[in-house]
Design goal:
three-stranded antiparallel sheet
């Protein structure tokens, strides 16, 4: 079994009938970063050792004493102990100071501003890496590096998010100083904000098409579409769609088809959806192909053909109406 410095010192002094005297000269004090210091005395010499626990400190003191005995008596330096002291918790590294920003300074999203700056000037996108997390669990200090090309800046804060902001802010300042011709991100951000405010009144009045949840499976779409429409509205849409298909014997003219398309669009709009007509090319010149699409999610698409373009569009309208009716009933 390998021997520790405490065991080696004990055996060495036993030959001289001396017992090493260990004295605790510094207690951790009960703080979250405890440290203890032991002083060992024997054979007219003293040595100190510090550790995160009393056991660790005692081993360090014994190790220092062995080195002192070797130096005092001119012995060759003792080899390293085969068994290292069982230090379970290393001494805490030096905790960096956290930069504090005065409350009067407005917050700037440096991470977003730096990303925009790099994009606008064809620079590599910023890379962030956590370098260290020092301190107890309830009061850690984080250090994060921000790298752009060969430039590296560090941010230190009590949260990862804030450390990332500090690192990005330093990098933003460095790039702006090194390359004065870079786009002025702050001015761009201000201009974009002003444009958005000016356009909001108009954009907020635009109608938005309602779309079904993209996560739904196709096999359950008809149930979802049916359940997403109120009962009264669903019955109204069904009644109107059925009325469009009641005149199948009507002479198909261009005016009739255009009127049918207009009515169909108005009915589909009740469901907050839109319909569009797609022109398709046919490999057979004697056959015309048409398609219609409703912008649901997933989209409803139907294709039909006819001996004339008008007939192909009309057949497509009938198919799209029957499909919507199938989903709503």
């Amino acid at each position: 079994m390998s021997k520790t410095p405490v065991s080696i010192l004990q055996e060495m002094m036993a030959k001289k009938l001396i017992v090493p005297n260990y004295e605790l000269i510094h207690d951790g004090g009960g703080t979250h970063i405890n440290s203890f210091t032991y002083r060992v005395s024997c054979d007219g010499l003293c040595a100190d050792g510090t550790g995160r626990s009393k056991k660790d400190a005692k081993h360090e003191a014994a190790k220092a004493m062995l080195e002192a005995i070797a130096a005092h008596r001119g012995y060759p330096q003792l080899p390293a102990s085969p068994a290292q002291s069982p230090i379970r918790t290393p001494l805490p590294p030096t905790i960096p100071e956290v930069e504090r920003i005065p409350p009067s300074v407005p917050f700037v999203n440096a991470v977003g501003a730096l990303q925009d700056l790099c994009t606008e000037n064809n620079l590599n996108q910023p890379e962030y890496e956590q370098i260290s997390a020092v301190g107890p669990a309830h009061a850690k200090i984080f250090t994060i590096h921000c790298k752009v090309a060969t430039f590296v800046e560090a941010g230190v804060a009590r949260t990862k998010k804030q450390a990332k902001q500090y690192a990005a802010k330093k990098m933003l300042d460095k790039l702006s100083d090194l390359v004065p011709d870079l786009s002025d991100t702050k001015q761009t951000e201000k201009t974009s904000s002003e444009i958005a405010k000016a356009r909001y009144p108009v954009l907020s009045r635009l109608s938005s098409s309602k779309k079904i949840n993209l996560g739904i499976k196709v096999k359950g779409y008809h149930n979802q579409l049916k359940d997403s429409v109120e009962e009264e509205i669903r019955k109204e849409v069904i009644e109107k769609l059925e009325s469009l298909t009641s005149n199948n014997d009507t002479c198909i003219t261009e005016e009739f088809v255009e009127n049918l398309i207009t009515k169909l669009k108005d009915i589909i709009a009740i469901l907050s959806l839109e319909i569009s007509i797609l022109d398709l090319n046919s490999s057979n010149p004697a056959v015309y192909v048409a398609a219609m699409r409703i912008n649901s999610s997933p989209a409803i698409v139907q294709v039909a053909n006819g001996d004339t373009k008008l007939k192909a569009v009309y057949n497509t309208i009938l198919k799209i109406i029957n499909t919507v009716l199938f989903f709503l009933k």
